[in-house]
Structure formats: C-alpha cells, structure tokens
Amino acid sequence: MGPTGQSPLNRTGFPSRLPPETAARGEEAEAPMAAAAVAQEQTNPTASRPVRCIVKLGGAAITNKGELESIDVESLRSACAQLRQAMSHNAGAAEKVVGMDWSRRPGDPTDPVVDAEGLSEMESLGIDTNFVVVHGAGSFGHFQASRSGVHKGGLHSTLVKAGFVATRISVTSLNQEIVRALAREGIPSVGMSPFACGWSTKQRKLASVDASQIIQSLHVGFVPVLHGDAILDELLDCTILSGDVIIRHLAQILTPKYVVFLTDVHGVYDRPPTDPNAVLLREIEVDDSGSWSIVKPALEGNTKGVEISVASHDTTGGMETKILEAAAIARLGVDVYITKVGTEHSLRALKGDTSSEDWLGTVIRSSK
Ligand SMILES: Nc1ncnc2c1ncn2[C@@H]1O[C@H](COP(=O)(O)OP(=O)(O)OP(=O)(O)O)[C@@H](O)[C@H]1O
Ligand SMILES: C=C(C)CCOP(=O)(O)O
Fold this sequence. Notes:
Elements: E1 9-11, H1 20-30, H2 34-42, E2 53-57, H3 59-62, H4 73-87, H5 116-121, E3 131-135, H6 142-148, H7 158-184, E4 189-191, E5 200-202, E6 205-208, H8 212-219, E7 223-227, E8 229-233, E9 237-241, H9 243-254, E10 258-263, E11 283-286, E12 292-296, E13 306-308, H10 318-331, E14 335-340, H11 344-350, E15 362-366
Parallel strand pairs: 1-13, 2-3, 2-10, 3-7, 4-7, 5-8, 10-14, 11-15
Antiparallel strand pairs: 5-6, 8-9, 11-12, 14-15
C-alpha cells in the first residue's frame, strides 16, 4: 500500500501489483452480492437487535501455527474471557457464569454436574450477546487444504476430494473446541459452518449466501460462531473461504458498530513484524473509491508501501487478505480494529474503546 493509497500492498519478494488470485479476492471485496440483499430482505437483521461487534479470532492467535492441529489454550481462554467481559452488563462486578459445556471431556470421571433448578430460576444470563464470532483455521485446515490444493478446485481429483473432507474435519473440530471454550464462559454459542449453511462461490467470489440462520440465532440470543471453510465453487468445484471474507460479508448484511480482528501481532506494520525496524501503523483511512492512506504515523520517505509476507501453507492470503477485507468493511462506515489477542488492547477493542493514545493496534476507518 503506498502512503497515499492506490497501489495497495506489496508481498515481500513480489512485484507491487497483486498476484492474480489475490486480485480476485480484492475484486470480491469491492462488489456487494445480490445474495446479501436477498438475505437482508428476508429479515431485517438490525430491526430489533443491532449487532454490536463481529470479531475474528485469528488462527494465528488461537492456534500454534507451526504445530499441526494445536490450540493455543491460554490465548483461546483469554479471548473467550475478554469476550464475556465485553458482553457483560456489570463490568467488574462478580457475576455467576452459567457454564454451558455439559459434555464429558476425556479424563472426566463422572458426568458433568448441572444445577438445572438454579438455572431455571435465573432471570437472564446478564450479558448482551449481540456479537458474532468468526474464527480462522491457523494450524487446523490450512495444511490439509494446501497439501491437496482444495483452494484451487478440481473435485474430480481424488486428492482434492480427500483434502476437502480432511480440511472440513480439521476446521470443524476446531470450531467445536472454540464453541466449547465460549460456552464455558457462559456465552450461548452455536457453531455454524458456511459449507453446511449452503455458502458457495463462483471463481472464488461469494455467489450464494444464506445468512437467515445466523440472523435468527442472533434474534433469539445465541452467538453464532462461524469459521473459514472448504466450500463448493460453481466454476472451480471447490475452494477455501477465508474467515476474513466471511466477516466482510457479514458486515455488509449486519452493519455492526465495529469489527475486531484478533491476531498474533499488534496490528498492521509497514513490513513483516519479524523485521526489527517494522513500524506499527496506528490509523489507516479508506476513501469512497476504496483507496486508502496511512494517517498515523506519518511515514516520511516511505515509497514501498506495506510489505507483507505470507506463509507458504496459507491458502487464503494471510495479512494481505485481512487488510483488503478490513478496507472494504471500513468503506461501509464500520470501524475496524486489528490487535493482538490476550492483551489489554484486545479487551479494549472488544469493548469498542480504542480512542486513547495508549491503545496499541491498527484502526481502519472511512475518511468520511
Ligand atoms: N506487514 C505486516 N503486518 C502485520 N502482520 C504481517 C505483515 N506481514 C506479515 N504478517 C504476518 O501476518 C500474520 C497474521 O496474519 P494471519 O492471516 O496469519 O492471521 P490470522 O487471521 O490470525 O490467522 P488465520 O488466517 O489462520 O485465521 C502475523 O503472524 C504476521 O507475522
Ligand atoms: C479451511 C480453511 C483453511 C479456512 C481458512 O480460513 P482463514 O484462516 O480465516 O483464512
């Protein structure tokens, strides 16, 4: 991304123009879909219960990305506890948490004890549940997808077909663990897979989206928990849908007050954060045409724009996709906060409180 917008991102080692498959994702971010309008007409989602926040639990944040199918248990626990705090009516006050994971975990000697009588007497959960959670795959799913080429399509190939199944087994098992972690914090979460809800793409652009189940669940007080998924594609047979793209689409339908991306770094840097000279970009503005510029800090003499590195097994474009989708969300007039999981900054972002100077992260907002 040049400091004054237009040519957006620079993948390390690549020319400044976007590679073809990423350009496709960028175009996708530009065009709201007819299906979104259909879903919006079916039910007016904001009529009675406006969505406060859509949050992405990044795969890099809640899994150990270098270790196959390994959850970062502490980061996940912290993210769920902070979500609970952000939803709470009485911040700081001791309140009863209604544990909702009643399944028996490996090693548990007996069935879980459920105080059914106590719960039936409780008037409410004491939290505002008008959040949507979307999580990425991290060390679940990306490996299976890249090994088999699911993101490139071609279900006639046995390898791709097997990889599609393996990818879905992996991401849905992560989804189950995340729903359980949220449920243990007393958040009434329900897992929803884009594939199973009939979401599909055409040449990797979202083509059919049924959000009615999500909207109905929000209306009755559940927190939908979606995830990046392997889905069907009208032209390619199949592809991988990133959680970042799901979030942008849901933002178009639900117009939340703000969107939060939690990941393993403090935000967007001017170059990969592994570089000791990387500078954290505090504020990015997006104009009506989709061009964007770095507002804070002023990067004197930066002609290279934002440089991004993407792990070779990442099938959905990593930070590059996140920035493009975040810019499309900001263009809707919805502020986007990108910050590090498990920090005081992530809690403040989840509460929508990023205005003070000492908040560490990247805000992406409309210039209007
Ligand atoms: N310029 C940059 N600014 C910030 N992060 C960058 C940049 N270039 C590369 N990265 C890398 O991007 C990673 C975060 O993006 P990634 O897409 O992996 O996050 P995620 O959403 O948490 O994970 P997932 O896509 O698995 O859900 C960080 O680990 C960071 O090292
Ligand atoms: C099945 C996969 C690999 C989903 C990828 O979703 P993301 O991690 O949000 O980009």
